Amino acid sequence: MIEIIFNSLDFENDIGPLVRAFFPSEKVEIRTDEAAGAEDPQKKLFVTFDEGSSVTLKWEGEKPAVDSIPWSDERIELKNRIKRSLYHMLSQETGKDLPWGALTGIRPVKLALTAMMEGKKEEDIKTLLQSEYLVSDEKTGVALSVAKKEASLLTDIDRNETYSLYVGVPFCPTICLYCSFASSPISEFSGRVEAYIEALKAELTAACDMMRHKRLVSVYFGGGTPTSLSAEGISYIMDHIIKNFDLSHLREWTVEAGRPDSIDEAKLLAIKERWEAAGYRIGRLSINPQTMNQKTLDLIGRRHTTEDIVRAFETARRIGIDNINTDIILGLPEETIDDVRHTADEIINLSPENLTVHSLAMKTKSRLSLQWDEWRNYTYRNGDGIMAVARGAAEKMGMEPYYLYRQKNMAGNLENTGYAIPGKEGLYNMLIMEQWHDIMAVGAGAASRKMYYDNEMGSWQSRRCENVKNIDEYIKRIEEMEDRKRMIFLK
Ligand code: SF4
User: Fold this and answer.
1) In Å, how far are 39, 222, 473, 481 from 196, measured between CA atoms?
2) Closest C-alpha to ligand 1, atom 2
3) Most exposed of 123, 335, 372, 404 (fewest Cβ within 10 Å)?
4) Which CATH code of 1.10.510, 3.40.50, 3.40.630, 3.30.60 fits the domain covering 2-94?
5) Ranges of each domain in the chain
6) To the nearest 5 percent, what fractions of the chain are helix, strand and coil?
């Protein structure tokens, strides 16, 4: 265990994650009271603020490894100075460098994109990423190329006048080992799924009324796995949207059909017919193998076969669905680089239009974290070599990276990257990741976001509201969910 002892709490949400990134297998605790700590931590890091003068970083029993940090009244400047010094100290201690340097947030591209939108030159953005945030050459290149792609795809979407609609269906056939979403096995809700769909319908009606003054550009059905519902259930919700919302500006409607064991021809046909009713070629389907190795699928609790994945894909193609995303996860238990190569080869055979490459993240609410004692002896391999296999597969399929984000506690402290054949990029992914415009989100556990430009701060800010995660509570308190939205969208 590593303890970080602050003389007063400040920047702990920046300092803690950076220490964790250098010591991924250690527990890191933050304290202000040294005496309350563990009896024998492996290391203690002291962070001492001398307000108005300096900040000192020091390991217990050692001289400060870096000079004390001069104070700045500009909080961002002070934060960056602390993170750079801490990075050097941790790098010295561990002999490691991190590809994303001192950047610990989830959106490394945002900095580059914001600078680009402000008209800064590419060279200056490169300098910003490398000198201010210590980002590696390679990741600087990735951030710049993704930011350029996003800038070209997002600039004609008016940030004030448009919005996206997210519809959450919190059911799955079974729950995956690493899942931290608010999803439940659909078999446990028999008899109540209809009530959920009715609550969703009511919330959609209210949402539509609240957003009449804006143009809807993308719809995303996620969860959960929306195709866990019957063909009738899916059609009912999609028809309600088609009937009520103005879809004349709609550019994309994604449906997550993540689990092949939830897909059949009747459901895919129902979805495709509704896409066609909403506007030709707006449909995007996500079929998510995560891995094409059967032993891993069994281990992570996905009760289907690799053949099911291929069959689902073939069905979608046969009925004419021409924009399919596949998600894979790197760092799954016991997977070697050869396993990842096998997955990559199989995905190339499927020839999707999008490939989203995730690095396994240890989410606190997942079974993987909660039952860690049971899983700790498995191996979790990820790194540049494995990422390169996935990147190579994307390149072979003619894809380019178009969005990128990070999560806390990711294996290898790397990133998730969305690749797409040019012209087939998932618009919603970019809009949500860059906090581009309003997201009206309905369904249990769904989080809505209202964006506004803050003149005083000179930047875009957001107000969020969340629906309750518990499905029965959501159904019971649906009017309250609608009121929560009114509070942020009609303010
Ligand atoms: S398919 Fe996705 S939402 Fe469903 S259990 Fe697996 S990780 Fe969770």
Assistant:
1) 50, 15, 10, 13
2) 224
3) 123
4) 3.40.50
5) 2-94, 108-154, 162-442
6) 45, 20, 35
- Give me the chain's average pLDDT, please: 92
Do 223 and 183 form a contact (C-beta atoms < 8 A)?
yes
Ligand 1 atom closest to the Cα of residue 258 is 1
Which residue from 53, 54, 26 is spatially nearest to 41, judged by alpha carbons? 26
Read off the amino acid at residue 267.
K
Strand partners, 47: 6, 57
Q: Considering the entire predicted model, what is its pTM? A: 0.89
Residue 318: count other Cβ atoms within 10 Å of its Cβ.
10
Q: Please tell me whether residue 357 adopts helix, strand or coil conformation.
A: strand
Ligand 1 centroid to 183 CA: how many Å?
A: 7
Determine which of 59-63, 445-449, 478-482 has the lowest per-residue pLDDT on average: 59-63
pLDDT tens string 412-446 = 567 899 999 999 999 999 999 999 999 999 999 99
Q: C-alpha distances in angstroms, 179 versus 185, 195, 422?
A: 12, 25, 30
Site to substitute for ligand 1 among 178, 225, 227, most atoms within 8 A of C-beta:
225
Report which DSSP code applies to 361.
B
Per-residue model confidence as pLDDT tens digits over 90-111: 999 999 998 889 988 778 888 8
**Is the model's pLDDT at 142 over the cut of 60?**
yes
Res 409: pLDDT: 62
Q: Count Cα atoms within 13 angstroms, Cβ side, for 78.
A: 17
Q: Is the pLDDT of residue 66 over 90?
A: no
Atom of ligand 1 nearest to the CA of 180: 8
Residue type, 360: L
- Give domain 162-442's CATH number out of 3.30.70.360, 2.40.50.140, 3.80.30.20, 3.30.565.10: 3.80.30.20
Ligand 1, residue 178: give the atom nearest the CA: 7
What distance in Å separates the CA atoms of residue 295 and residue 292, rounded to the nearest whole number?
9
Which residue lies with its CA nearest to atom 3 of ligand 1? Answer: 224
Distance CA 188, CA 201 (A): 21
